[in-house]
Design a protein that fits this description.
By secondary structure, the protein is α/β, with parallel strands linked by helices. About 30% of the residues lie in helices and about 15% in strands. The longest helix is centred in the middle third of the chain and has 13 residues.
């Protein structure tokens, strides 16, 4: 029997974080639809392999990582050059050059050498991330819809179905709202009758434990160590609400249609926020743009108060059903007094 010919391979570079990956899903879906007979390979950090495959837009991953969100080397690409390489990493020559070093049959990038056949699209700094990459692809004749963000429902069960998920961490300190304010909101949501669980990344146990210690959360509601993507996806998909800064779980909430409250600081929501929807509230105090990778909380982020966040969260949460006593007009929080 003659072996089936191998599919031509297409390489996409997007070696950034979880939020960056999820923001690129509309572009990746456009690529997948435009090249159904190609094997789509995505170069990204190995820790995001499960998340990348869960998008349903890629066939394989090429492990690729670099410190401080830099451009990784792609020299370990196996076999013949890709027939097409697409730079979704950034607009600089570094990411373009990393792909060009593989000698692909064709290379699509914002940064192109001069002269180029057909002027490439121009980078617009004041453009939403999802819209930017879809416009980039459309300039090369590849249709892509920036609102095509939803992920398939996860097959794994949620570790805390129906809970409010509070994620106080973020890759950079500039996007981390203070732990004491997360704790204050957590206490208020619990007082309103909602179960709250805390999550964090693999290196955020100290932060998660700090918030937990301030609130008295039971150990079962403190999810330490960084959940594997499948468990995190299931947790978010079946949550009542996700509360976080501008980081991966906020984008995951959008991908699963889970109500969310996202706190923005150095970067405004019109660049990285959720699509317009009553399910998603983006809190933001306008001001000068900041450094999203800075080592101190952004001043705009610090202007958001615990009162604002609590009110936003409660506006999206369904009221807890009354107890039998409350339904009869009895306040169940006060013990009965017998004569």
């Amino acid at each position: 029997m003659t072996a089936a010919p191998e599919k031509p391979r297409l390489l996409v570079l997007r070696a950034l974080g979880l939020g960056d990956l999820l923001a690129s899903v509309p572009a990746l879906r456009g690529i997948r639809r435009a090249f159904p007979r190609h094997r789509v390979v995505l170069a990204l950090p190995p820790a995001l392999t499960e998340a990348a495959l869960a998008t349903g837009s890629v066939d394989d991953v090429l492990p690729a990582d670099a410190p401080n969100r830099g451009v990784p080397s792609l020299e370990h690409w196996p076999g013949p050059p890709p027939v097409l390489a697409i730079d979704l990493h950034g607009n600089g020559p570094e990411s373009r050059d990393a792909l060009a070093a593989l000698h692909p049959g064709r290379l699509l990038a914002f940064a192109q050498p001069d002269p180029v056949p057909g002027r490439p699209p121009e980078w617009r700094p004041d453009e939403h991330e999802r819209a930017r990459w879809c416009r980039f692809l459309r300039a090369y004749g590849i249709p892509a819809d920036p609102d095509d963000v939803r992920l398939p429902p996860p097959s794994a069960p949620s570790p805390a179905p129906g809970a409010v998920v509070v994620h106080p961490g973020a890759e950079a300190a500039a996007r981390r709202w203070p732990a004491e304010r997360y704790a204050e909101v957590t206490q208020r949501l619990r007082a309103a009758g909602h179960r709250v669980v805390l999550t964090g990344g693999p290196k955020e146990d100290a932060l998660v434990l700090d918030v937990a210690a301030r609130t008295g959360l039971p150990a079962r509601d403190v999810l330490r160590g960084g959940l594997p993507f499948g468990a995190l996806s299931a947790l978010v998909a079946h949550a009542a609400l996700v509360l976080s800064g501008d980081t991966g779980p906020a984008h995951l909430a959008v991908a699963h249609g889970t109500p969310s409250v996202t706190l923005f600081g150095p970067v405004p929501p019109h660049l990285w926020g959720p699509p317009p929807s009553p399910r998603h509230l983006a809190l933001w105090h306008p001001g000068p743009p900041g450094d999203p990778h800075g080592d101190a909380p952004d001043p705009q982020l610090l202007r958001i108060t615990a009162d604002e966040v609590t009110a936003a969260a409660l506006s999206l949460l369904r009221p807890e059903p009354p107890t039998t006593e409350e339904a009869k007009g009895v306040d169940s929080r006060v013990p009965s007094v017998r004569p």
